[in-house]
# Entry
Amino acid sequence: MPVQLIAEDFEIEQTEHLTRSSTVLMLDLSLSMPMRDYFLPAKKVAMALHSLMSSQFPRDYLGIVGFSETARALKPQQLPEVSWDFVYGTNMQHGFMLAREMLSRQSGTKQIIMITDGEPTAHISQSGEVFFNYPPVRETIEATLREVIRATREGIRINTFMLDASRALQAFIEQLTAINKGRAFFTGPENLGEYVLVDFIEHKRQLSRLGGSRRAS
# Structure
């Protein structure tokens, strides 16, 4: 089940880097993000995560995928200038596909962090064409969940940060987390940065504890 958090004051402490991790951040670029004033806070979080990893965890890998009607890889240096797409489609399936490809070339523990405000409404069909429909149809949901299953089999954890807790999005994320066993957070734009960065730091702490246990055994 998704986790409902209460915003509190968080304190991030430096963590010894014992185990390499690889992360892909999936950033929703669909038109609904700026329409709801979600895009700028989400982009700031992406830039903050890159800054944190570059300074504190330089051995770690961070890939970035922007997704709307289709998905595309972004370089960290593109983040200050990246903008939303003037389309409504939310193609998580293509985003997960690109994220899996990126992580397949990396080592260490692997995770996807997805920031979004809507359920999947687009996917790439077997013919290679983009299919879009709102409200989402079963075909799109199933195509997206197949990518979640593939990611799960490859040992990739998916953590989702939702900026809109609509009933349809909650229902989809519950299916995603049931398959992947990752975590889901409902939050507003004002607390998004705290939640994403604190969750990342907690992930590093867990890896450090595991690394210390392995060395002691």
About this structure: The chain has one domain: 19-216.
